[in-house]
Amino acid sequence: MTKAIVLCSGGVDSTTTLAIAKAEGYELYALSFDYGQRHRIELERAKAIAQFFGVKDHRIIQIDLRQLGGSAMTSDLPVPKDRSGAQMGHGIPVTYVPARNTIFLSFALAWAEVMGAEAIFIGVNVLDYSGYPDCRPEYIKAFERLAHLATKAGVEKKLRLKIKTPLIHMTKAQIIQKGHQLGVPFHLTHSCYDPTPEGKACGHCDSCILRKKGFEEAGLKDPIFHVA
Could you tell me the domains of the chain? Predict the structure, then answer.
């Protein structure tokens, strides 16, 4: 089987991406990151999801991005709540973690070269997202070119690695519908940026709002409880 590295955060998008990679027949290697994020519960969800899909290997890499800060996800800055769609569509929010996808993809690239994987799957998308610059097609295209220039396998033309983004032009509702078709265990996923100490979703951050909107538009019930 052809091997693929799949970035797995425990959320709806990465879990649906994992399901797509499995449906395409890849041997799955999941990669998650403990980077000092305030919503570390996503790592427990990622473990359960990786087990559900029977991945060949699931690695959790530790990087302390709290040492750098600059984001509500890796510092004590407050997470924005109850923003409108217009507000979410304007500017780059404080929940953006500087260079996060570049860091994550770099680790995935290293593991892909070691494993001889032909693809890296990442669940980025440019429609229902919060304005993050590292979720755009031009960024992914540039990173794929870097991968060919920066690796032994690429220079020796032994491996032509693909960065696969199957969700990039899908709305959240379309992603949820696709995941539903593929049997994604949405009850295992976590999306909230600012969960309660018990791990319950706040229901008011950008990610919760987009998730709720997506399930409503998809005509499906979200199995994750949102506190009022």
Answer: 3-218 (3.40.50.620)
